[in-house]
Design a protein that fits this description.
five-stranded parallel beta sheet; 228 residues; 5 helices; eight-stranded mixed beta sheet; 21% strand; UDP N-Acetylglucosamine Acyltransferase, domain 1; 3 domains
Amino acid sequence: MLNCIKRLIPEGIRIFIHQCRIKARYDVIMEKGSTAYNCVFEGRNRLNANARITNCRIGFGTYISGNSRLRKVTIGRYCCIGQHVETGFGNHPTDWVSTHPAFYSLQSQAGFTFADKQLLSEHKYADSEQKYYVCIGNDVWIGNDVKIMDGVTVGDGAILAMGSVVVKDVEPYSIVGGVPAKLIKKRFSDSDIKLLHDMKWWDKDLAWIESNWMAFSSIKALIDAASK
């Protein structure tokens, strides 16, 4: 009965009600055309216009820019996700006679299938529980038009340059770019990266961050603030 009632409600109204629930529960700003289905937010998040995310977990302070499409992604805290970022592309076999899913999948992507059982995993997972196609750490900046393939883990503090196609894991505090994405450089020295990794500033309470926000201009200033 409940499903029948839901079908009688126009889609636009259903989306509006769903967005209101997310805003109230998680303190999320959702701009026009943005949607979030089966997602969990830590709070103070923003989905810009036409951003669409499904089955995602979004850390505190992270925002997702317009027209991005994310499926089964976990994202850490204080991340900046650019426009037109996409995940959840899936796989096709390259050593089969045909790459068409009708020969190995029950999903009927083309509206039909010849297969009587699933013969190939169509997605790679980045986590051991197989919940997420992509795992993104904390304080990550992803530029516009980046595509991230299944199974990729992006480390804390990494930067993915605009237009990159990321096909393998990205080390913490690394800058990568290109098609496929390759290491451009590390943001800091190995010793400084270890200090930041051990500090995990994104796990500190909000009051501490608000009191020490000016220290984020340099590693030395941040370490001094953390030692007080």
